[in-house]
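Regression test attached.
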Amino acid sequence: MALDRSDIPNIADLARLAIAENDIPQYQQELSNILELVEQMNAVNTDDVQPLAHPTDAVQRLRADEVTETNQREKYMQCAPAKEEGLFLVPKVIE
Amino acid sequence: MQNLTLAQISKGLEAGEFTSVEITQHYLDRIKQLDQGENGLNSFITVNEELALAEAKAADERRAAGNATAWTGVPIAHKDLLCTDGTLTTCGSKILSNFVPPYDATIVENFKKEGAVCLGKTNMDEFAMGSSNENSYFGAVKNPWDLERVPGGSSGGSAAAVAARLVPAATATDTGGSIRQPAAFTGLTGLKPTYGRCSRWGMVAYASSLDQAGPIAQTAEDAAMMLNVMASFDEKDSTSIEQPVPDYTATLNDDIKGKVIGLPKEYFPENLDPEMASVVRSAIAEFEKLGCTIKEISLPNTGLGIPAYYVVAPAECSANLSRMDGVRFGVRCEDPKDLEDLYKRSRGEGFGAEVKRRIMVGTYALSTGFYDAYYVKAQKIRRLIKNDFVAAFNDVDFIMSPTTPTPAFKTGEKTGDPVEMYMEDVFTIALNLAGLPGMSIPAGKVNNLPVGLQIIGNYWNEAGMLNMAHQFQTATDFHKEAPAGIDSNR
């Protein structure tokens, strides 16, 4: 399926990606080519086929709901770009 | 010293021929000489000299104390998407260019327990998306067989480093061919295990239902040694399968007489390069000499593999990479004006072109109204592809094919057209969709460049594949060839 020029900013917005205005035509072309490749799937009828969610059809393993990890909050927060008093800092969301 | 295999290094350490500190220093020196600087291979993103020597020293002490295993003091390297506690883990991306994980991946931990030494972290296509290692924020990697050519991808750094003997073996991961294709391009033995065999915990996720870690090594024997450590059941990975791990080195010398090898006609298409076909067919003839029989088979849905993959992988990556948001770790954009701007610019500036393309394709495929037409359809195609293999394995023990359609191509040759680059994985991708194990072993050369033979096994038959590969390598010398020029500075 060929995408319209206007589809690109919408998709980028859904994906929370800032893209440059002048890159839009190239994305339009490349994404359309990829979707064209993907649509070769339509060559076969799959109406009666069960989708494959796990290659060996394994089911989700469950565990007891118990605390197993030790609290390492400070260590885990070391790689945060901005933090204060054990919290991640972001620009103000609610006025 | 540099052509030693893992098995030889393990024996040498045990016999006291050299210490871990000595062999570790030897490889660190080689990395300095051959990998770094303008003309270097660029196969490492991080070399952890101090830490590696400290680990080597600890390994020598452990050996002196009588607690050594076969792995104690043996140097390896990890692909830079396996988290290493305290050591930079970038995934080849700008957005993780400052990320120092606070924990080890299970695979990394498995090697640490054995006392192996980690020399550093190898270069890769950004978030494992690519087939040439040209999509790395840290620069392209050169193929030691021909510096103008790519080493393959996405595990191009691991492959180039082992091919140049900068490290005897390395970990890698394979989502659509990222272990097998670089192994083929660099004359090495690479193995992608059955989905669920190696833990994905601490391995940065690209496409969770396809990703699987495995070794890149010089020989099948070394790949077996690596898999002995890498394979484990892990409660922390919900897709890890509770299945006993055999000793993969124990069955390497089993007799392969009478094994039936299937050759799928779809993997030997009419337009396959005749020289490639000839090298692969003569390698298969070698298996006949060893007592195997050949059977022509068909995997009729092969052509649907790439189309299905380019829905499943982008869809899963668009979800997985949503965690790269500039809030809790990684690089954040300068002066965000609000939260939305923070997300968009951190991601827009932090991701490279191929990653953005795949995120956008996946976002589109998963968006309202398109889910059934793309993702569900692709999951149904996966079932058809799996059924083809299940039917084939009723009649044959292994399936063989070329690993790639051509030997290593030139840097820049395929970067202009993403879809052309995707075709690179035409013979490897179906295994990931089906979750099957596969390996690539050196089978000869075309135009002085290595060619890989792909061996596909049934589910959980890694030991059988390694047995086949080892018997082939016992009868032939292709795997012993190293690129010219890697001794130039010695």
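Expected vs. actual: identical. Chain A has a mean pLDDT of 93.
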